[in-house]
Amino acid sequence: MQNDSTPRESIRSFFEAPENKNLFSKCPFRPCLAHLHEFDAPLAHRILTHMLGHILDHRAGRVSATHSNEDIRGISQDSLNEELRYVYNDCNNAILNEARRLDPGLQPYDDPKYQGFGPEQRACYGGDARAELMAEAIHAYLQDPNYLKTVAPNVAARIRHAVNTNPNLNQIIQFN
After folding, report:
1. Contact, 118 vs 111, CB < 8 A?
2. How far separated are the first and last CA of the chain, in Å rounded?
3. pLDDT tier at 102 (50, 70, 90 boundaries)?
4. Which structural domain, as residue segments, surrounds residue 24?
5. For labeling, which of 39, 45, 93, 165 is most exposed (least CB within 10 Å)?
């Protein structure tokens, strides 16, 4: 993806379309889309796969109301909160990831400071937080399917079902 501008431009175009201007407006990566050329290839790729996660979540999901009566379109997260939050923390907790540079086998449950990092630490709440959790899970699935199937098997199964059975998506992408 990093050498091909087509996916990059497709993702940017999706978010720049007038009907999508307000989608995922609280996503911390959204402002970065206009500046991808300023990032190194791995970071630009990470941003793009996270934003692709938002698109897939939005396209594969259904509209439902959250506990705060917000309507949100996305893949159902019923009974997945613990797994989704584990993945988000594991991928985004800077303290955990810095400690893993010294000890690659370190696990989040080894110390409380390595736990509990969620979208709320990036000012995303309610429906925005739910969207961030699923986009990050899809990002993780795109990066390393075995990782997600191991640490969040129910999330992986939900993503597979939602995307692979969607006729608007399954001709473009399939999750194994």
Report:
1. no
2. 19
3. very high
4. 5-164
5. 165
- Closest C-alpha to 77, from 90, 89, 62, 59: 62
User: For residue 2, what pLDDT band results from cuts at 50, 70 and 90?
Assistant: very low
* Long-range Cβ pairs for the range 144-150 (8 Å, 24+): 145/175, 145/176, 148/87
Residue 170 covered by a domain: no
CA 57 to the chain's CA centroid? 9
Using the CB atoms, write b or e for 74-99: b if 16+ within 10 Å: bbebeebeebbbbbbbbbbbeebeeb
Q: How many residues does the chain have?
A: 176
In a domain, 92, yes or no: yes
Phi/psi class of residue 12: alpha, beta or left (left: φ > 0; alpha: ψ in -120 to 50)? alpha
Whether the model clears a pTM of 0.85, i.e. scores above it, the answer is yes
Residue 112: inside a domain, yes or no?
Answer: yes
**Beta strand pairing call for 62-65 and 71-74:** antiparallel
The total of structural domains in the chain comes to 1
CA dihedral 97, 84, 52, 59 (to 10 degrees): 180
